[in-house]
Automatic annotation (TrEMBL):
Organism this protein belongs to: Paeniglutamicibacter kerguelensis
Alphabetical keyword list: Amino-acid transport, ATP-binding, Cell membrane, Membrane, Nucleotide-binding, Translocase, Transport
Limits of the ABC transporter domain: 2-241
GO MF: ATP binding
KW Transferase (keyword) present: no
CDD domains: ABC_MetN_methionine_transporter
Entry-linked InterPro entries: AAA+_ATPase, ABC_transporter-like_ATP-bd, ABC_transporter-like_CS, ACT-like_dom_sf, MetN_ABC, MetN_ABC_transporter-like, NIL_domain, P-loop_NTPase
Name the record gives this protein: D-methionine transport system ATP-binding protein
Source superkingdom: Bacteria
């Protein structure tokens, strides 16, 4: 559905050349919710502007549903942009317009007949749960409700892709959960492909099927959630399923292992299996069992007593689909 190939964006600031995007390539399948995560300065804002054609890429291509957009003519630019609905951090609603009038505004701009606008707005407000607030003004809405209006407005052109730029960073945790659930529901009901630009790992955990890590204008990690988390050495895996950085003081002699496993294995008694099979005590130092997207993961830090057969235990774990990292041995 979305294919970005070797996308570069270079700005000239006087005598200084700034490479904001340096060969970004990614592919997102139809119907996926894909997260693009990165710190400030990573190039997220530039990527958004290039994906929506607010900025022309210096080179490379952007294709939606096999149609090239990066080099579309100015005459076709408006039509091309309609294929991507935009949701921003702040809904940027017009204070003098009601909820229904804010949603209707893009349709009015392109001369849609009034009867069609009325029917479309009613459908969209029902979709985002705001039918009762059709005549309310932005000042009368909560932050989450205003963001729902923004989502409805982004959908009025029947886009193929919904691009959400930090859609929850101005919201409290409960409202964030509600908006992410809405985005997933909209994806399912309208068969959309969704890109979420964010710096919040919790957004990726709750909503995304796949993820890319953007750093200094480059995609440095990319893949399905299950794939990237399964690599315990990866930056995304460590960020999505973090462990305490330091071991607790006063630990007895032994070997500390980090274990990572997923799917049905995430609920299996791995620790008791080690204890029974090797007749040793296992000390659990830290851990969590979490759902990321549609998958369940377990990440545990354990300590094995001094003298344990680490090679045999590691082989036992690996044979049962558990990734093992030796954290410390003493």
């Amino acid at each position: 559905m979305i294919t970005v190939t070797d996308l570069r964006k270079v700005y000239q600031q006087g005598d200084r050349t700034v490479v904001a995007l340096d060969g970004v390539s990614l592919h997102v399948d139809a119907g996926q919710i894909h997260g693009i995560i990165g710190h400030s300065g990573a190039g997220k804002s530039t990527l958004v502007r290039c994906l929506t054609l607010l900025d022309r890429p210096t080179s490379g291509s952007v294709a939606v549903n096999n149609q090239e957009l990066a080099n579309v003519s100015d005459a076709d630019l408006r039509t091309a942009r309609r294929r991507i609905g935009m949701v921003f951090q702040h809904a940027n609603l017009m204070d003098s317009r009601t909820t229904a009038q804010n949603v209707a505004f893009p349709l009015e701009l392109i001369g849609t007949p009034k009867a069609r606008i009325k029917a479309k707005v009613a459908d969209l407000l029902e979709l985002v749960g705001l039918t009762k607030f059709a005549d309310a003004y932005p000042a009368q809405l909560s932050g989450g409700q205003r963001q729902r209006v923004g989502i409805a407005r982004a959908l009025c052109s029947d886009p193929d892709v919904l691009l959400c730029d930090e859609p929850t960073s101005a919201l409290d945790p409960k409202t964030t959960d509600e908006i992410l659930e809405l985005i997933k529901s909209v994806r399912d009901r309208l068969n959309l492909t969704v890109l979420i630009i964010t710096h919040e790992m919790n957004v990726v955990k709750q909503a995304c099927d796949s993820v890319s890590l953007l750093d200094s204008g480059r995609i440095v990690e990319h893949g399905d959630i299950q794939k990237v988390v399964a690599d315990p050495s990866g930056r995304l895996s460590q960020a999505l399923l973090p462990m305490p950085g330091d071991l607790p003081d006063g630990l007895p002699a032994g070997t500390v292992l980090d274990l990572l496993y997923s799917g049905a294995r995430a609920t299996e008694p791995v620790i008791s299996s080690i204890a029974r099979t090797f007749n040793i005590d296992v000390n659990v130092l830290a851990g969590s069992v979490e759902h990321l997207g549609e998958h369940q993961f377990a990440h545990l830090r354990i300590q094995l007593p001094e003298g344990s057969d680490i090679a045999a235990i590691t082989a036992h774990l690996l044979s049962n689909g558990v990734a093992v990292t030796v954290k410390e041995a003493k």
